[in-house]
From TrEMBL:
Organism: marine sediment metagenome
UniProt xrefs under Gene3D superfamilies: Ankyrin repeat-containing domain
Keyword Repeat: yes
Residues forming coiled coils: none
UniProtKB keywords: ANK repeat, Repeat
PROSITE patterns (alphabetical): ANK_REP_REGION, ANK_REPEAT
Protein name, as recorded: Uncharacterized protein
Pfam families given in the database record: Ank_2
InterPro entries given in the database record: Ankyrin_rpt, Ankyrin_rpt-contain_sf
Length: 203
């Protein structure tokens, strides 16, 4: 495909290409590569059109120091086109703290309640409060497995997550007060003090 030399027209031509064709075009056509590399708004606009449900705030956070083209081609597009199970993507993203990936997995149809709400449990275990809040907003059940999420958050010392789960009526006494016991065994005195202030027995 030949470009016209008119920047505005050429951007329209490139924008209409499918991802695979666009990437191929940029790899073999120096003019196309320069146009795309020199105008990162082209890639941002493409991201926003492909993933309108993510929003600029989330996109900017997870883009980090990368260019928009790198973030799109090597991250978002790769994930969105992956053949892996959507539930596996959801679990991995919840564990690693990638809210952008969590939202993509959900948008692809991942079951938020899979494996007894494992996603919200592993997010709680790793202290990813933003993901816990998002999953709860989408209907995740923090009471799954007898309120095991608050136990995991306590065990690993994530006080903010513990407080949030309590605000959502998590039962701190579940599993014979395992939350305060495991927090104590792992030296998380701030979590212990907080749970004790709510009526948990001091170990």
């Amino acid at each position: 495909m030949l470009l016209t030399g008119n920047k505005d027209v050429d951007f329209l031509i490139l924008d209409k290409l499918e991802d695979s064709d666009l990437i191929k075009m940029c790899n073999i056509n120096k003019e196309a590569m320069q146009l795309c590399n020199n105008n990162q708004h082209f890639w941002l606009n493409r991201i926003m059109s492909k993933f309108p449900y993510l929003g600029l705030k989330i996109l900017t956070k997870y883009k980090g120091d990368r260019s928009w083209s790198q973030y799109y081609i090597k991250d978002l597009r790769k994930l969105n086109n992956a053949n892996s199970n959507n539930i596996e993507q959801l679990f991995n993203a919840s564990e690693k703290g990638r809210l952008d990936h969590v939202i993509i997995a959900m948008n692809k149809g991942a079951d938020i309640h899979a494996q007894d709400d494992f996603a919200v449990k592993i997010a709680s275990e790793n202290g990813h409060l933003d993901i816990v809040k998002y999953l709860v907003s989408q209907g995740a059940n923090i009471h799954a497995d007898n309120d095991f999420s608050v136990i995991l958050a306590s065990q690993y010392g994530h006080l903010d997550t513990v407080k949030y789960l309590v605000s959502q009526d998590a039962n701190i006494h579940t599993w014979d007060d395992f939350a305060v016991i495991w927090a104590s065994e792992n030296g998380h005195t701030d979590v212990v003090d907080y749970l004790v202030s709510l009526g948990a027995p001091r170990p």
